[in-house]
Design a protein that fits this description.
2 domains; 7-stranded antiparallel beta sheet; 32% helix; Serum Albumin, Chain A, Domain 1; 23 strands; alpha+beta; 531 residues
Amino acid sequence: MFQHINTKSTFATSAMVTSPHTAASAEGLKILKQGGNAIEAAIAIASMLSVTYPHFNGLGGDAFMVLSNKDGDVHTISGIGQAFEKLNNFKDKIPTRGINSAITTACTVDTWGKAYEFSASNWGNHFAWQELLQPALDAAYNGIELTQSQSYWYQYRAQEMNDWPGFQAVFSNQQKPFLAGERFKQIQLGQTLEHLAQYGARSFYEGELATRLVEGLQQLGSTISPNDLKRTHARIEQPLKTLYRDGVLCGLQPPTQGVTTLQIMGILEQFPLNHIAAENSAAYYHLIVEAIKQAFLDRNQYVADPDFYHFDIEKLLNENYLKEKSKNISLNNALEWNEIYQHGDTVYIGVVDSYGNCVSMLQTIYYDWGSGVMAGDTGVLWHNRGASFSLNQKHPNSLAPFKRPFHTLNPGIYLKNNQPFLLYGTQGADGQPQTLATILTRLIDYQNLPYEALAKPRFLLGKTFSNSQDTLKLENDIGADIVQKLTQMGHEIDIIDAQSPLAGQPGVIQITQDGLYGAHDPRSDGIALGF
């Protein structure tokens, strides 16, 4: 459990950032104070987080952005690495750790590069690329204080790490774990960041660094080739949208589950939530959980790489379809639940600059610590997102060369009067749309301020990495009376700690006529900062 000393929403009049690490937020704020735009600040934060939060994200993973100017012109950047051209023959399942779990390329760095190009063309850059990465490479060389979060997840996986190639040499102190607060250096990662700063984002995919990455993975038995990295590109796309109350929610296209969050909210749109359910009542939690179930049934059937699986995803957001889905919900009884669980950890970044531009961003290495595999001497920890592929060739998310895997990440922006009003996103895999539905209803239907919405009790439906039961996990400060009522409705319940890391680590920035309100989850090491 991670409690931050901040106990209220941050307020600012000009610009704001939020991230799960205070030092990363501070670097983004510096960029904004010096006249930089939201994309430039987001790149500075994202690169810093690759150093300060390596257990949840890094250069060897994927990343996603939702971008908007002050007039509500929204674009998304989907940075998903694709499966290698040559793949091993997996018989029963794809491993979740080790070199055979690292079967897709990494697109985080190209996401930064595409965003920087978009910024130059549309918002006007104020900083050189090198300047944005400099704080991160300095932190890698000089060291950072180990966070409580990294210490927790190191200790949680301690029994597995000896089997992860090259891992202990970087993330332990001569086979002993670093303790929270100790200085932790990543010299090889610093060298890689320095190379990227000098030669640009594409140097991760083509040239000397790319060769070292490929050879480092190949030496461990990977089937990756230089062409696999070379063909890795983030995509700038139009967002999916759905109406909610008096605004519009914007999210990412498949193969992300952006449509799932929008569908949950579109189903809830069919109910006058704040009239039929008091906030934080059993009726409130029940209705959100049942909307989640309806959306998840569609997600597991239809969401996959549209280059390989052709389905009109807009059908899931059709008003008549959402109305029909809402009719499947009983206000008094829970639907029995037994569905596929998706794992994953990530970091959320939100930025609003003084020009009114916004970035809502997530980046990830899938499981905590990803594949556990270091890519040679580059300091890059490779992700294991390819483990989310299915080996059932009839499944929409079946494994195939060049295919992008299903992704749980889905940051978003909520427009009100055609202008950005909320930036939001969270860590948490299957929990992402669940957490987002909870905080969005609190923000929109019940007019909470960001910290208030984030700090209140939450839930997680379904399996987790530590609990294989398809139960409804409730934080224990939710109240015994609510637990009793939900049980009577038919929900099978487990209790988890208050402020549990299982409940996600979202961040929010709210843009109002008075100014900006922001917060990062008290379950994280982060903070919102502004001026």
